[in-house]
Amino acid sequence: MSTTPAPEQPRGHELVVVANRLPVDSRTLPDGATEWVTSPGGLVTAMESVMRTVDSGAWVGWAGSPGEAPDPFEADGMSLYPVRLEQQDVERYYEGFSNGTLWPLYHDVIVDPVFHRTWWDSYLSANRRFAEAAAPVAARGGTIWVHDYQLQLVPRMIREKRPDVRIGFFNHIPFPSVELFSQLPKRNSILRGLLGADLLGFQRESDTLNFVAAVRKLLGYHVDGTTISVPGLGAAPRREVEARTFPISIDSAAVSALTEDPDIRARAEQLRHDLGDPDKVVLGVDRLDYTKGIRHRLKAWGELLDDGAIDPHDAVMIQVATPSRERVEAYRQLRDEVELTVGRINGEHAPLGRPAVSYQHHSFDRRDMTAMYMAADVVLVTALRDGMNLVAKEYVASRPDLRGVLVLSEFAGAADELRAAVLVNPHDIDELKAAILKALAMPVEEQEEAMRSLRHQVMENDVQTWAHDFLDHLGHVGAEAQAAVPSVRLRGDEPSDPAAVDEALRTFSDVPRLLIATDFDGVLAPIVEDRDAVQPDAEALAALRDLAELPGVAVALVSGRALEDLNGHTRMPSSVVLVGSHGAEVGALPPWMQAEVLDRSSLSMTPEKEELLGTITAELRRISRAHPGAEVETKPTAAVLHTRNATGRGGHNATESALEYATSLPDVTVTPGKEVVEFAVVHTSKGVAVDALARASAADAWLYLGDDVTDESVFATAEERDVTVKVGGGDTAAGLRIADTVAAREVLQRLRELRSEQS
Ligand code: GDG
């Protein structure tokens, strides 16, 4: 496969897939160089077809070996971004929490789930690494599609960084009943992680319903059908998240086409011959996994031979059991048991020179797989629990001749669609034996009738349709979420046409009741290095003071500085409202403003919030005690964990613990920064403050001047009649741009002039 370094993507990728594994495997060439080979699989095939329809697609995942990750590279028209996993992550995040805890629990506890807290820590930090790799590479307004149970925390982690993108999640394995799911330590964090997505896809309707029931019962969120109302992160508004069923499929046409290949046909014939030309060939193909019901199948087959119901000269079973997760204890045990059973059956029943069960513990290429499907009279899919089971669909797609019988477990997702199969409860060994005999004896006409119906289902609903359906749907549900995110209205640093600014000011001054609000640093005073040495523009302040005296005009200063600090530098009269700490501190209001509006807004502390802040402070203190050097700072409306002085990995671990704790707090604004995490119980921003002040002053329109990123939250809330002015350069959601503090002073003076003319 040809690979090149990934080109720079200044605008990011339109579609980003995030999965545990990249769709490639590395191979070391004789000269020591590394070559990447596309790894076969349904998801890869599905995504290839979708990637062709977008301008720029990317895949984020682990390259398969621990330690140093390769640099991003380009392969088959897609940019690949490898995520680094250390050996310890492989053991704890992947083999541990993913395959030792989640996998058995999500498959109805066929084996006992094992849980260790260190596994969870690693799951959390590995998920964060995937999210950190994915968030920056998506284009503005692009789509990120996260796959499977290993990455359930990633949707929320991405949303925290990129509220502008559409986020989809697809769960390839079952979602358990709420009773079983409730056993999972950290269950609520998992649910909250998933609910960061706009759309959650599941294989079967029962999975979708199980998930929604868990959200309702464990988080108490309001649910309408399968639409969940999720409280916003921090100051963000509520979001609607949809759960929906999308049964995955295969590249049906490609599989079917392989059966036309003369070489593969010849292999199928040769295979039957090699097995001694039996009347019937029965096939099982699975990863060697305890969910697949391989032991049950062998037990049934062994008993049929014991009973004499099957003559080993007439019928042979092939069992492909592809190696899987061999370092996980339950899988080692399974392998031992399966191999013991196969040995016993062959020892007791195999005719000389031929097997009763041909057991293959290695993988085959796609062409050999197709040859096996073509050679098989019966395929046994006896999973005890399976998200979908693609083998069932592959067998159907491989039988354009309409021959063959599929015996299919009710507990595989495929059973919802493939109703014409011989459906079976694999736990009932007698029923399974009867189903196998029925399949072996099925008359050709009956086989054809069933296979026609199965093929209709599989050929119509292929993996391409599945992927397009999911993404189409995500497009609809994500559109609303995106509308809530401010869009950039002005780029670069070119000031707006002065005539346009003046026109906006004229129209604005004609409105009966106005709110004029402005940031301080960078607007009323040039930015200086020493914040205490700031020199406000006296004329600009004078204009504001005068404006505040005019009828129908409210004036406010809104700053990141603490209220006291702001007051000290501006010395404004009581007619001007001062708002400090990004909206968390509001000074006295003039008597004519409705103070109760502010009391009701999320700006104010309530006894509940005081209590919540106390709880958070106590928990952060506990975390800081466990990691020497970490410290907790308390503010009137927030608690802050500082990890700058923590020793060794303490800083990292304390941050991880704090962020994990954060996932259990829906109504708290958590802002991670450089070696600091802030938990604020008052959901404030300058935007929230200006909105509340506009209502408290009954303003018909407001004008806001700001220069900083924190002012964007104000610009974003503007409606048609409001005027938003960015001071200085940079992308902004404001409608107008002026150059500097001098221009800001002129705007305020002009407003004073226009409004004075009216009174
Ligand atoms: C998970 C869910 C869901 C197997 N051996 C070889 C080989 N295979 C291929 C099969 C099939 C695939 O592997 C296995 O897919 P399954 O669907 O049976 O199962 P899982 O691996 O458990 O996958 C499952 C699936 O995700 C998709 O959402 O259906 O329920 O558990 O395609 O053909 N392929 C080749 N050589 C082998 O030896 N080439």
Describe this structure in words.
The protein is of the alpha/beta class. It is 41% helix and 20% strand. The chain has 25 helices and 30 strands. The strands form five sheets. Strands 1-6-7-5-2-8-9-10-13-12-11 form an eleven-stranded mixed beta sheet. The protein has a seven-stranded mixed beta sheet with strand order 23-22-21-20-28-29-30, sandwiched between helices. Strands 16-15-14-17-18-19 form a six-stranded parallel beta sheet, with helices on both faces. A hairpin with an 8-residue loop joins strand 12 (227-230) and strand 13. The longest helix is centred in the middle third of the chain and has 21 residues, at 329-349. 47% of the residues are buried. The mean pLDDT is 90. Bound molecules: GDP-alpha-D-glucose.
Summarize the helices and strands and which ones pair or pack.
Elements: E1 3-5, E2 13-21, E3 24-28, E4 34-38, H1 42-51, E5 57-62, E6 73-75, E7 78-83, H2 87-106, H3 117-134, E8 138-147, H4 154-161, E9 166-170, H5 178-181, H6 187-194, E10 199-202, H7 205-219, E11 222-224, E12 227-230, E13 239-245, H8 252-258, H9 262-274, E14 280-287, H10 294-307, E15 315-322, H11 329-349, E16 357-360, H12 366-375, E17 378-381, H13 390-397, E18 405-409, E19 422-424, H14 429-441, H15 444-460, H16 463-483, H17 498-509, E20 514-518, H18 538-549, E21 553-558, H19 563-570, E22 576-580, E23 585-586, H20 595-600, H21 607-626, E24 631-634, E25 638-642, H22 650-662, E26 669-673, E27 676-680, H23 686-696, E28 701-706, H24 712-715, E29 723-727, E30 736-738, H25 741-758
Parallel strand pairs: 2-5, 2-8, 5-7, 8-9, 9-10, 10-13, 14-15, 14-17, 15-16, 17-18, 18-19, 20-21, 20-28, 21-22, 28-29, 29-30
Antiparallel strand pairs: 1-6, 3-4, 6-7, 11-12, 12-13, 22-23, 24-25, 25-27, 26-27
Helix pairs in contact: 1-16, 2-3, 3-4, 9-12, 10-11, 10-14, 17-25, 18-25, 21-22
The structure holds GDP-alpha-D-glucose.
GDP-alpha-D-glucose (GDG) binds next to strand 14, strand 15, helix 12 and helix 13.
